Amino acid sequence: MKPSPNLLLKLLPVVFTMLLASAASGQNARVQFERLNGIEAKASDVVEVNIEGKILDLAKRVLVKVNDPNAKKIGQAINGLVAIYVRAYNFEKEGEYNMADIDAIRAELSSPGWEHLANVRSKRNDQKLDVYTMFTGKDMSGVAVVLSESKRIAVINVIGPIDIDLLTELGGRMNIPKFEIENEVPKQ
Asked: Is 67 part of any domain?
């Protein structure tokens, strides 16, 4: 029995929508910053940084060409980056923003594809810090950091592969924190 052309035409939009949804879920490391639009109006200070496209390409080319070997390594480590986004908001008083807005970002980063790498909680300033990573195969394809305090919010989103081994090698230099990652030592 042959499928009717009308049935195929009716199913095509459904199949197409399902394919788009599955392609979009888990494979896009970009945080939906639109969720924070309402916070901006309440903040006393706002920082918005969008480094992508030609500006990011320029930074990568410059870092690789300078005479400083550490800068060259940073250039190599970020060579595959697609974008860097930063949003930071400061408030005059506690309780001026709705925590549900930040929790929506955290919920987004708890979806399939993201892995919750670390969380830090402190009663001082009601601080919550979460770090999330996204991997495509063995390569890290995105990082997101969400910080909320009683009078401050920051969200950082880095999209694209990051060479962790090179960054680890640079730890303690050029204001890059020293990472304590143990390398596997072969048994003798």
From this structure: no
Question: For the chain, what is the domain count?
Answer: 1
pLDDT score, position 176? 54
Does 187 fall in a domain? Answer: no
Looking at the DSSP bridge assignments, the partners of residue 85 are: 50, 157
Angle ∠(52,43,122) on CA atoms, nearest 5: 90
Q: Give the pLDDT band (50/70/90) at residue 30.
A: very high
Residue 181 lies in a domain: no
Its domain, for residue 96, covers: 35-49+80-169
CB atoms within 10 A of CB 44: 11
User: How confident is the model over 91-149, as pLDDT tens digits?
Assistant: 999 989 998 999 999 999 999 999 999 988 988 878 899 999 998 888 888 999 999 99
Mean of the per-residue pLDDT values for the chain?
76
In a domain, 126, yes or no: yes
Sequence-separated (6 or more) residues with CB below 8 Å from residue 59: 51, 78
